[in-house]
Amino acid sequence: MLDVHAPHEVLHTWKGFFIHIATIVVGLFIAVALEQSVEALHRRHEVAALREDLHAESRQIVTDARGSEASHLYEIRWLTTRIAQTQVAIRERHPIGPREPNDMPNYVSPDIPIWRSAKAGGRTPLLTKGEVNAYAEVEYVQVHLDELEVAKNKARSAVKSFNREFPVLSNGDPDFSSATPENLHTYLGLLTTAYEAIDAYTHWLRIIIGAASAVVDGKTSLDEIYASERKVGGGDFLQNFM
Question: 105: alpha, beta or left, given left = phi > 0 and alpha = psi -120 to 50?
Fold first, then answer.
């Protein structure tokens, strides 16, 4: 708060007294106005910085989700081939053939640390209602994606654990030459579960691409964001969740 100092001369008349009071009042008004102006300027800078950070985060979400989608589509193709191999081995009652190399590209999972930090720090009231609703929708999709990632990783781990029950070939692959039909049926079930988990995760990657892309384009209407999610993620799939 700015300090307002009154004149130091002795007041001898009522006129001088009122001038003294008026000086103090005017000084206080000026001090309050200046302080409010400084606070308003700081608030505008804070809002602008938050919007810029969230906008950059949305662009990063789109980039990361697209890279992750490409990697998971590679894994889905690999699993499709391996499932077909296992089905043939079961049907024709012969040992399963060797696996194709699984050179799944590296990826970065999308995340929303800036939005979560803004919520935790009580800064979301700086945004408009539309902006809050838009980022909250992206958060909803991200939470669902995080849950699916847990299920996906659990399914992957189950396949790896099953592989470790068998001897290891020189190339590091499990040796299924002695696998029984029951073993192969178990393996097929684990592969199928992994496929379904990864497929679901990939669908929701597309949904978050749709949501974040809409936000990047400046859309704050939930109807517009939902439409973008359906366009990118696939309307039929979304009907089960929205």
Answer: beta
